[in-house]
Amino acid sequence: MELWPGAWTVLLLLFLLLLFLLPTLWFCSPSAKYFFKMAFYNGWILFLAVLAIPVCAVRGRNVENMKILRLMLLHIKYLYGIRVEVRGAHHFPPSQPYVVVSNHQSSLDLLGMMEVLPGRCVPIAKRELLWAGSAGLACWLAGVIFIDRKRTGDAISVMSEVAQTLLTQDVRVWVFPEGTRNHNGSMLPFKRGAFHLAVQAQVPIVPIVMSSYQDFYCKKERRFTSGRCQVRVLPPVPTEGLTPDDVPALADRVRHSMLTIFREISTDGRGGVAQPTQRWEHFILSPVSPLPLWSSLLLYPTFYGTIPPTPSPWIQWTQSFVRRKTHAAAGS
Ligand SMILES: CCCCCCCCCCCCCC(=O)SCCNC(=O)CCNC(=O)[C@H](O)C(C)(C)COP(=O)(O)OP(=O)(O)OC[C@H]1O[C@@H](n2cnc3c(N)ncnc32)[C@H](O)[C@@H]1OP(=O)(O)O
Ligand SMILES: CCCCCCCC/C=C\CCCCCCCC(=O)OC[C@@H](O)COP(=O)(O)O
Asked: Same domain for 245 and 286?
């Protein structure tokens, strides 16, 4: 196909404009940074899933494949400068089935989840995730259990089958009892499926609390910086001898203990949690950097968050220029 004679020049100019616009947006607009980071997060997971699928396919659908997904996802916290601190991992019962229940703030929960995910443990996920392209297929291969939240009867019968599987195939299950993502600084009322499941199988419940992300991540404010998150594993709650009638009280008791810990590890928030880390992109985009701009474009979402240098002069200039303009606009 013949291109119009000036087309290459126009394409090149557009490309250069993009090269200028993207870093400018990245540095000057926290919202743009939020969108870039979330897009990269999802895109990166989809890409990793493409790599994981052939490896997992060797075994077929198998809970052991969850180890592969875990290993592939563990590095993401470094890309985003998120320090994940695990406390209480000794509370995991060593070798028996159990049900993990955990709070659910965002898809970033995957980071904390992968940090502590025990062996032979599979999450229960909404059915829609099955259609999330390569990630859905990777989840299916790793034995993730899918439930249709719109069909309570079906969801409950899947959970009952899982209760059998827990015992016969020695697996653990990870449930987000809030049933949906919730980033409002508290926890939604718990759905009872996980607790019925544990009581039916007479296995312990292991509550896990992930501290609030408010310091470094807020969807509403389109804010996503680097920060710290604590993952606290609480002592197992036995269910032996309990019956379905005990489920409401059991769910309330577990939620209460989780909420207490959530408040405890999230409150020292502003001061104690998010320490802004230094940024790689300042190093990469520095005028003395040997790397050309286009490679920094590819690299800075990847290596965000670790190395010390202060912003390079042109970044400082751009930031102060935008600040001056914003103040001038606000003043006029
Ligand atoms: C490299 C690539 C990597 C890819 C990533 C990999 C990682 C992927 C990670 C993915 C992470 C993905 C994360 C995600 O996707 S999170 C979203 C999906 N997960 C959940 O929804 C789990 C939590 N939900 C529940 O437990 C619900 O209760 C269910 C779904 C079961 C029903 O909810 P529903 O809203 O429809 O109904 P209801 O809760 O009002 O219950 C109605 C009644 O039924 C009773 N009842 C409930 N259950 C049982 C039972 N088993 N036996 C007997 N009875 C039971 C219950 O007590 C109540 O009765 P009553 O008490 O009012 O009298
Ligand atoms: C070819 C099709 C392409 C589909 C592209 C889909 C894009 C999705 C990209 C990557 C998938 C990342 C998988 C992350 C899993 C995070 C699990 C999660 O957080 O699910 C939400 C669920 O707990 C509750 O859902 P709601 O809060 O009720 O909503």
From this structure: no
